[in-house]
Amino acid sequence: MRPIQLGPKLFVALFVLILVEAPSMLAQAPTAEAQMASATLPLPDEMRADATVIGWNESGERTDLREGTNGMICIADEPGDERFRVVCYPEPLHPLLSRSRELGEENLEEAERDRRLEEEVEAGKVVLPEQPAVLHVINGPAGSYDPATGQTSGEVSQLRIIFTPYQTAEAMGLPTERQGDMPWVMNSGELFSHIMIVREGSEGGE
Questions:
Q1: How far apart are the first and last CA of the chain?
Q2: What is the C-alpha separation between 121 and 96, in angstroms, rounded?
Q3: What is the DSSP string of 159-194?
Q4: Average pLDDT over residues 82-97
Q5: Which residue ranges make up each domain of the chain?
Q6: Residue 12 pLDDT greater than 70, yes or no
Q7: Which one-letter DSSP state was computed for residue 82?
Q8: Distances in Å between the alpha carbon of 177 and those of 4, 115, 134, 169?
Q9: Measured at the alpha carbon of residue 176, what is the angle toward residues 159 and 202, in degrees to the nearest 5?
Q10: Contact of 185 with 198, CB cutoff 8 Å
Q11: Which of the two residues, 201 and 107, has the higher pLDDT score?
């Protein structure tokens, strides 16, 4: 089992990585149907069919594969890289994540990217969700998802990242370090404060 590496700025780094990197030019993108099936795996069963899905076209460009109706957005796995990584999040997070992507494309240093994001949030240029928002992530090595069966292997990590801007671990009654299976808070008190819930391995094809 290869657990996901949890850096101090996981929330932003995760989405800069997913939304900025382009797929290998040698990689053939799966069919739209296959991408939608895997992209929505992190969601609860009842939310998968109606989620918006962003994936890849035959030219290796990002494209909208399906327009959803339930307020959730899912990002398909990047073809040809060394990982299987799919993410879903609620629409109110999209402005923040889109701006993160744009800043990531400018190849800024992490500290400068974070500083500019915080300035734009404080100025009202980037609107945050009014309520805590949950990101659903499945992450694992290449080959940890079988498209023929729709199943993931025990090598994946499943994450629920609850975005709680400026909230502190103390106020939420949670630790700031991982302790077994207990949820914990990263970036406590900062813009990118978030609760981490991680489960290693797979159950029921998730």
A1: 16
A2: 8
A3: EEEEE-TT--HHHHT--SS-BTTB-EEESTTSTT-E
A4: 92
A5: 10-200
A6: no
A7: S
A8: 15, 24, 19, 10
A9: 20
A10: no
A11: 107
Rounded alpha-carbon distances, angstroms, from residue 77 to 8, 107, 123, 134: 23, 22, 33, 19
C-alpha to C-alpha distance for 65 and 50, rounded to whole angstroms: 12
Segment 109-166, tens digit of pLDDT: 878 888 898 999 999 999 999 899 999 999 999 999 999 999 998 889 999 999 999 9
Whose CA is closest to 79, among 36, 31, 27, 41?
A: 27
> What is the model's pTM?
0.83
Picking from 23, 29, 14, 164, the residue whose alpha carbon sits closest to that of residue 87 is 14
DSSP 93: G
**The two structure tokens encoding residue 59:** 């030219």
pLDDT for 50-83, tens place per residue? 999 999 998 888 899 999 999 999 999 988 888 9
Please report, for residues 77, 118, 151, 203, the alpha-carbon distance to residue 30 in angstroms, rounded to integers and kept in the order given. Answer: 10, 37, 16, 24
pLDDT tops 50 at residue 104: yes
| Closest alpha carbon to 155 in 87, 86, 81, 83 | 83
User: Distance between CA 100 and CA 123 in Å, rounded?
Assistant: 16
Look at the block and give the residue holding tokens 């974070």: 114
